[in-house]
C-alpha cells in the first residue's frame, strides 16, 4: 500500500472545465463516451495522467484525431498521455460492467436499477478522469437506455431534453450549470416511482422536489419529503443559504455503502434514511431520516458550492455539515436529548478511534485508502470542533464568518485553513492556537480541582493529551469550558464560558456567600474526558438543580460509574454506591414534574458497556457485562413498582404533538425493559401483549427487543412470529437480524452462525452485513469470548467480504483495532485473528491498511 501525504499536495497539472458524458446503459457492457475540455495548468511539459480503474478502454482521441495505442501508457490505475497540447478536446470511450460492480463504488446496479456512488474515488471507475476534488467542471450528461427497463433517467442539475430512439431505447439530457468535482457526479436509471412537492425559496424561486424509489416503497417517502422542506427553510433562516437549481431529486436504493450521498441536485440515499411509516419505522428511525435528509441538503452549500481541495480537508465539509445537521435536529426537537445522544455517539465511536491504532486528527496528515477516513473523528469530532468555534465566537460572529466563507470561496475547492481564517477575519478572534484541533489527534484529558475559602472559589484546570500513532508531546488546546455555580439551595449564581488555553490555568470566582456546587463542561462544551473527583452529594445536587439536561444526565452517569467501576475489579457491588443510584432513580421516577421525558429516559439508562470499556485501563468484557447486568437486575427488582407506575403513566396517548408522544414512548419502553429484566411472568406477558397490540414499530420493537434479549421462555416463537410478519420489509428484517446478533450472552455466537446461513442473509447488501456482523462485533458479551470464536468468525467473513465489498470489510475489521486494550486471553486471541487476516495475500488496500496499522 502506498501512503499519501498532505504535505505533498500539489495543484493539478491540468484542469478540465467542461465534461460531456454519454452513457449507453447495459448491465454487462455500458458504453461511456467522455468529451473533456482540458487545459494545461501552469507552464510545464508534464504528461497528462488520468485515473481509471476497472475500465475497458475502447478509444482515445485528441481534437478529433484518434490516438494510437502506442501513443499512450495504460496501467491498472491510470492512462498517461505524454505530449498533449496546452488546450484541447479529449474524447475517451470506455466500457464498464455495472452488474459486476459489487464494491458499490462507481456505476452499479441495486435491485435492477442503475445508480452511482463517486465519493471519494468512484468516478475513475466510470471513465478516465482527473478524479480529484480540486478539478471542477461543468457537466452535460446524456443517458441512453431501454425505455421499458429504465423509464426514469436522471443526472445532476436541470433536465434539458428527452426523446425516444430506435429499438425501444430512449434518452435524456441533463445540464448542471454549477462547476463541480467528479465526486459529486451522479446518474440513476431504472424503473422508479416518485412523489413530488415544491418549495419556494426566500427569493421567490420555485423548486420542484422529487423522491424516487421502487414502487413497493413509494408510500413511505412522505416524512423524508417533509424533512427536506424543513431543512431548506432552516438553512435559509439560520445560514442565509438558498437552493440553486430548479429541481432537487432524491433516490433511495437498497444497496448503499454509507447513509447517503450529496451529489449535486441528485442525492442518492440508502433506503434506511428515506423510508419511514409508523408500521415499519421507529421514532429513532424517523429522527435519523430527518437528520440525514438535512445533512445531505446542507451539503449543497457546505460541500458542493464550496468544496474540498483534497481529501485531507474532508472535515471541512463533513465536520461543518454534521454540526449543521445536529443543530437543525436540536432546533426541531429536544435540544438536551439531542446533545446527550450526540455525546454518546462521540464517546462510543470517536473516543475509541482516538485511543486506537487508527487515531488521526480531524485533518489527517496521511492515508493509504481514503475510504478508511470517513471516520467518527472526521465527522463527529469535526463537528465538535466547529461547535467550539461557534461557542468561542458567539452565534452572530460565527454567522458573519460563515457568510464570508461562502461568499469568498463560492465555486472553489478550499481547505480547513480557509474556513478558520474566514471566521477569524469576520470575528477578530485570534484562532492561532485553536488550529491545533486540526492537527493534533487524541482525546484531551482535563483535570479539575476546586478550592474554596473566604468567599472565593478557585477552579484549577489542567489539560494533557495522550500520545497517538506518530504524535507525541502535544501542545495545549484552546477550548471553551462552560461552567456554572449553584448555591446550596439550588440557585444558579454564575454561568460563564472559560477560555481554557494553557496546560494549567486557574479561574477565580469572587464574592460567594458560601461554597457553591460547581457544574463543569455544561452542554459538553469541548470533546474531552473530564477527570473531576466530584462528590456524590454535588452530583445529586446537579441532578436536582441543573437546567442543562446534559449535565443532569452526565451527573447520573457519573453516579452509575461510581457504582460500576470499582465492582469491575472487586467483583462486588458496593452497597452504598448501589443505594445512591437506586435512590436517585427513585427520586427521578417519583418527581411529579419531570422536565423532559426523553431526558428522563436517558437518565434511567446505565452507561453503555462500550463506554465503560472505553474508560477502563484494561478491558475485561466478561466483568463489564456481569457487573452491568447485575446492576440492571437489582434496579429492576428493587424499583419494580416505580417502573410499573412509570409504564402505566406513559402508556397512554395523551399528548397531541408527535414529539411528546415519542418521548412518552421512550420513557415507557425504558420502564418496560426493566420490568422484563425482573424475569417475572407477568411482565413477559405485558411485553408480549405490547408486542402484539402495538400500533407502531417503536412499541413493537421495544417489546420484541426486551423479550429477545431476556430469558423469555417463548423467545423462539416470538422470533418466528416477527419474521413471518416482516420478512418482506428489508429494513425491518435488518432489525430482526440485529436484535438477535446483539443478544447479550455467549449464546450469541451460535445464533449469529445460524443467521449467517439464513436464506435472507447476503454479503452483497451492506445493511444486512451491518445488521448481523456489525451488530455482533459491537456485542461486548457475545463477541468477546474466552475461546476467541467470535473473532475467528468475524475474520472468516471479512476475508469473504473483502472479495465483494472492501469498504464494508475494512469497517468490520476495525472492531478488532482496540485489541491492545483488552485483558488476556482476549487481547492475544484478537491479535491472532488479525495476524491470520494479515497473512491473506489478496487483501484490498482498504483492509490491508486497517489490519497492518492494528498490528504495528
Ligand atoms: N459524503 C458522503 C460520504 C461518502 C463516503 C464514501 N466512501 C456522505 C455524507 O457524509 O454526507
Ligand atoms: Zn456528509
From TrEMBL:
TM helices/strands, residue ranges: none
Cofactor: Zn(2+)
Cross-referenced InterPro entries: Aminopeptidase_N-like_N, Aminopeptidase_N-like_N_sf, PepN_Ig-like_sf, Peptidase_M1, Peptidase_M1_dom, Peptidase_M1_pepN, Peptidase_M1_pepN_C, Peptidase_M1_pepN_C_sf
Domain called Peptidase M1 alanyl aminopeptidase C-terminal: residue spans: 537-855
Record-annotated Peptidase M1 membrane alanine aminopeptidase domain positions: 224-437
Domain Aminopeptidase N-like N-terminal: 44-184
Keywords for this protein: Aminopeptidase, Hydrolase, Metal-binding, Metalloprotease, Protease, Zinc
Catalytic activity: Release of an N-terminal amino acid, Xaa-|-Yaa- from a peptide, amide or arylamide. Xaa is preferably Ala, but may be most amino acids including Pro (slow action). When a terminal hydrophobic residue is followed by a prolyl residue, the two may be released as an intact Xaa-Pro dipeptide
Pfam families, per database record: DUF3458 (PF11940), DUF3458_C (PF17432), Peptidase_M1 (PF01433), Peptidase_M1_N (PF17900)
Single annotated GO MF: alanyl aminopeptidase activity
EC numbers for this chain: 3.4.11.2
A single BP term in Gene Ontology: proteolysis
Domain Peptidase M1 alanyl aminopeptidase Ig-like fold: 442-533
Family designation: Belongs to the peptidase M1 family.
Main function: Aminopeptidase N is involved in the degradation of intracellular peptides generated by protein breakdown during normal growth as well as in response to nutrient starvation.
Descriptive protein name: Aminopeptidase N
Amino acid at each position: 500500500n502506498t501512503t499519501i501525504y498532505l504535505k505533498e499536495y500539489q495543484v493539478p497539472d491540468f484542469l478540465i472545465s467542461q465534461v460531456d458524458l454519454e452513457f449507453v446503459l447495459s448491465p454487462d457492457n455500458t458504453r461511456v463516451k467522455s468529451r473533456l475540455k482540458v487545459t494545461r495548468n501552469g507552464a510545464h511539459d508534464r504528461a497528462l495522467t488520468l485515473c481509471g480503474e476497472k475500465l475497458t478502454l475502447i478509444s482515445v482521441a485528441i481534437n478529433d484525431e484518434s490516438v494510437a495505442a502506442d501513443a499512450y501508457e495504460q496501467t491498472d490505475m491510470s492512462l498517461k498521455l505524454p505530449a498533449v497540447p496546452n488546450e484541447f478536446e479529449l474524447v475517451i470511450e470506455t466500457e464498464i460492467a455495472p452488474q459486476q460492480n459489487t464494491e458499490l463504488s462507481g456505476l452499479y446496479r441495486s435491485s435492477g436499477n442503475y445508480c452511482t456512488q463517486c465519493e471519494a474515488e468512484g468516478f475513475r471507475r466510470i471513465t478516465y478522469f482527473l478524479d480529484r476534488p480540486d478539478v471542477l467542471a461543468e457537466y452535460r450528461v446524456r443517458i441512453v437506455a431501454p425505455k421499458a427497463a429504465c423509464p426514469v433517467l436522471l443526472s445532476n442539475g436541470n433536465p434539458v431534453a428527452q426523446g425516444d430512439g430506435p429499438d425501444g431505447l430512449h434518452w435524456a439530457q441533463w445540464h448542471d450549470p454549477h462547476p463541480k468535482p467528479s465526486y459529486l457526479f451522479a446518474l440513476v436509471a431504472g424503473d422508479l416511482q416518485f412523489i413530488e412537492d415544491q418549495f419556494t425559496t426566500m427569493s421567490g424561486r420555485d423548486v420542484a422536489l422529487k423522491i424516487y424509489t421502487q414502487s413497493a416503497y413509494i408510500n413511505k417517502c412522505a416524512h423524508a419529503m417533509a424533512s427536506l422542506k424543513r431543512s431548506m427553510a432552516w438553512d435559509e433562516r439560520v445560514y442565509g443559504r438558498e437552493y440553486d437549481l430548479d429541481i432537487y431529486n432524491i433516490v433511495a436504493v437498497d444497496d448503499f455503502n454509507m447513509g447517503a450521498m450529496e451529489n449535486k441536485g441528485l442525492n442518492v440515499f440508502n433506503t434506511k434514511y428515506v423510508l419511514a411509516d409508523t408500521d415499519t419505522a421507529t421514532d429513532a428511525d424517523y429522527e435519523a431520516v430527518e437528520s440525514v435528509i438535512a445533512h445531505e441538503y446542507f451539503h449543497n452549500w457546505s460541500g458542493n458550492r464550496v468544496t474540498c481541495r483534497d481529501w485531507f480537508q474532508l472535515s471541512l465539509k463533513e465536520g461543518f455539515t454534521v454540526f449543521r445537521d445536529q443543530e437543525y435536529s436540536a432546533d426541531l426537537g429536544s435540544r438536551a436529548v439531542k446533545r446527550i445522544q450526540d455525546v454518546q455517539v462521540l464517546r462510543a465511536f470517536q473516543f475509541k478511534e482516538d485511543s486506537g491504532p487508527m487515531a488521526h486528527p480531524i485533518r489527517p496528515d496521511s492515508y493509504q485508502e481514503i475510504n478508511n477516513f470517513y471516520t467518527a473523528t472526521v465527522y463527529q469530532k469535526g463537528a465538535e470542533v466547529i461547535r467550539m468555534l461557534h461557542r468561542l465566537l458567539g452565534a452572530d460572529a460565527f454567522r458573519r464568518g460563515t457568510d464570508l466563507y461562502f461568499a469568498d470561496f463560492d465555486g472553489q475547492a478550499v481547505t480547513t485553513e480557509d474556513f478558520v481564517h474566514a471566521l477569524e477575519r469576520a470575528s477578530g478572534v485570534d484562532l492561532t492556537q485553536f488550529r491545533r484541533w486540526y492537527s493534533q489527534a487524541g482525546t484531551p484529558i482535563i483535570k479539575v480541582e476546586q478550592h474554596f475559602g473566604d468567599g472565593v472559589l478557585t477552579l484549577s484546570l489542567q489539560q494533557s493529551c495522550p500520545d497517538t500513532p506518530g504524535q507525541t508531546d502535544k501542545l495545549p488546546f484552546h477550548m471553551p469550558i462552560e461552567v456554572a455555580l449553584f448555591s446550596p439551595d439550588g440557585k444558579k449564581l454564575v454561568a460563564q464560558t472559560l477560555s481554557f488555553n494553557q496546560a494549567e490555568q486557574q479561574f477565580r470566582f469572587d464574592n460567594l456567600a458560601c461554597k457553591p456546587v460547581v457544574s463543569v463542561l455544561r452542554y459538553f462544551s469541548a470533546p474531552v474526558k473530564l477527570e473531576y473527583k466530584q462528590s456524590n452529594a454535588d452530583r445529586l445536587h446537579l441532578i436536582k438543580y441543573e437546567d442543562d439536561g446534559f449535565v443532569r444526565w452526565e451527573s447520573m452517569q457519573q453516579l452509575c460509574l461510581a457504582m460500576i467501576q470499582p465492582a469491575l475489579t472487586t467483583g462486588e457491588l458496593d452497597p452504598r454506591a448501589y443505594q445512591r443510584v437506586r435512590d436517585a432513580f427513585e427520586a427521578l421516577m417519583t418527581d411529579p414534574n419531570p422536565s423532559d421525558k426523553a431526558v428522563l429516559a436517558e437518565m434511567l439508562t446505565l452507561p453503555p458497556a462500550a463506554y465503560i470499556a472505553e474508560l477502563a485501563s484494561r478491558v475485561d468484557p466478561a466483568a463489564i457485562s456481569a457487573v452491568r447486568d447485575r446492576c440492571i437486575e437489582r434496579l429492576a427488582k428493587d424499583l419494580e413498582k416505580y417502573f410499573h407506575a412509570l409504564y402505566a403513566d406513559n402508556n397512554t396517548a395523551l399528548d397531541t404533538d408527535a414529539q411528546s408522544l415519542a418521548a412518552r414512548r421512550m420513557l415507557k419502553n425504558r420502564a418496560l425493559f426493566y420490568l422484563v429484566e425482573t424475569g417475572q411472568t407477568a411482565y413477559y406477558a405485558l411485553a408480549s401483549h405490547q408486542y402484539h397490540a402495538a400500533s407502531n414499530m417503536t412499541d413493537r420493537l421495544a417489546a420484541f427487543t426486551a423479550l429477545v434479549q431476556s430469558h423469555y421462555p417463548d423467545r423462539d416463537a416470538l422470533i418466528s412470529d416477527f419474521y413471518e410478519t416482516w420478512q418482506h420489509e428489508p429494513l425491518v428484517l435488518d432489525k430482526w437480524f440485529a436484535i438477535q446478533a446483539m443478544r447479550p450472552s455467549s449464546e450469541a455466537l451460535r445464533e449469529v452462525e445460524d443467521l449467517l446461513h439464513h436464506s435472507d442473509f447476503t454479503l452483497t447488501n451492506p445493511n444486512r452485513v451491518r445488521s448481523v456482523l456489525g451488530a455482533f462485533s459491537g456485542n461486548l458479551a457475545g463477541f468477546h469470548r474466552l475461546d476467541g470464536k467470535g473473532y475467528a468468525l468475524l475474520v472468516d467473513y471479512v476475508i469473504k467480504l473483502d472479495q465483494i465489498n472492501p469498504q464494508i470489510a475494512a469497517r468490520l475489521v476495525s472492531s478488532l483495532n482496540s485489541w491492545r486494550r483488552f485483558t488476556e486471553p482476549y487481547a492475544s486471541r484478537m491479535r491472532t485473528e488479525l495476524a491470520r487476516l494479515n497473512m491473506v495475500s489478496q487483501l484490498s488496500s482498504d483492509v490491508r491498511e486497517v489490519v497492518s496499522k492494528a498490528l504495528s
